[in-house]
């Protein structure tokens, strides 16, 4: 347990520092530029790893409640330090700080202790929420360097919208639907029989996903209407400035 957490404590800050050093000394980038791109690189790496873990877990668990996979608890232990690192490494809005503090102080204990080894399938589905992060990070970097007029930015925007909608907006309804099939009960009954902790977590996290998706849609509509946003426009309007998969970050 401690070894995996220690590995995460070394890996995520280590990748950030190595990338930052390489961009500054090999590419000649400024400290601010290197910080921004390095932080988003780490976010994307963690997202790819979490999505891969989620796919392996969900595809291996036939019984959504009783089947277990060794990767579930191990990846939780390894990835938890990422959220603590991210608070330090990124320039965050207060909402994002609270979100990451919640992930470390509430989601980690719940995932490791309260589950009691059950529901690995559902934990794997939650890992898949990170699938939208690489697209969001790439979009932010492209806007940072005023590449919002390129085909790459437009294609990435479409993929990001689809990934965020499928992996985050539909995430919690799917969790309830999957349990209703397992228990052979209507979906609305799941709200009544599910542990109150599950309902509370969904009530706290799902509105955030809807809020961020609304902002992403507003930014996408504004970009399509204006053919792109200028650097000054992006600074004034955070709707055009996408950050990590978990939400929105301010431009510096």
UniProtKB/TrEMBL annotation:
Molecular function GO terms recorded: sphingosine N-acyltransferase activity
Bilayer-crossing regions: 41-61, 121-143, 155-179, 185-208
TLC domain span: 32-225
Membrane topology of this protein: Multi-pass membrane protein
Cellular component annotations (GO), alphabetically ordered: endoplasmic reticulum; membrane
Location relative to the cell: Membrane
Keyword terms of this UniProt record: Membrane, Transmembrane, Transmembrane helix
Main localization, broad class: membrane
Record's keyword annotation contains Isomerase: no
Domain of life of the source: Eukaryota
InterPro entries membership: TLC-dom (IPR006634), TLCD (IPR050846)
GO terms, biological process: ceramide biosynthetic process; lipid homeostasis
Name of this protein: TLC domain-containing protein
Highest classification ranks of the organism: Eukaryota, Metazoa, Chordata, Craniata, Vertebrata
């Amino acid at each position: 347990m401690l070894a995996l957490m220690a590995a995460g404590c070394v890996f995520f800050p280590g990748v950030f520092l190595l990338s930052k050093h390489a961009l500054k000394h090999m590419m000649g980038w400024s400290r601010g530029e290197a910080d921004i791109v390095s932080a988003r690189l780490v976010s994307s790496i963690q997202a790819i790893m979490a999505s891969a873990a989620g796919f392996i877990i969900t595809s291996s668990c036939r019984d959504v409640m009783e089947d277990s996979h060794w990767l579930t608890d191990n990846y939780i232990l390894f990835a938890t330090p990422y959220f603590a690192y991210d608070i330090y490494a990124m320039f965050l809005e207060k909402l994002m700080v609270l979100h990451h503090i919640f992930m470390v102080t509430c989601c980690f204990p719940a995932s490791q202790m309260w589950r009691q080894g059950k529901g690995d399938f559902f934990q794997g589905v939650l890992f898949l929420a990170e699938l939208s992060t690489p697209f969001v990070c790439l979009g932010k970097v492209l806007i940072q360097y005023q590449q919002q007029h390129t085909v790459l930015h437009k294609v990435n925007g479409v993929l990001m919208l689809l990934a965020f909608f499928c992996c985050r907006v539909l995430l919690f309804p799917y969790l309830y639907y999957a349990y209703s099939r397992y228990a052979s009960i209507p979906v609305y009954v799941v709200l009544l029989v599910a542990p109150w902790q599950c309902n509370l977590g969904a009530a706290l996290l799902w509105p955030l996903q809807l809020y961020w998706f609304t902002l992403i849609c507003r930014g996408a509509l504004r970009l399509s209407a204006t053919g792109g946003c200028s650097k000054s426009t992006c600074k004034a309007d955070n709707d055009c400035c996408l950050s990590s998969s978990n939400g929105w970050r301010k431009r510096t």
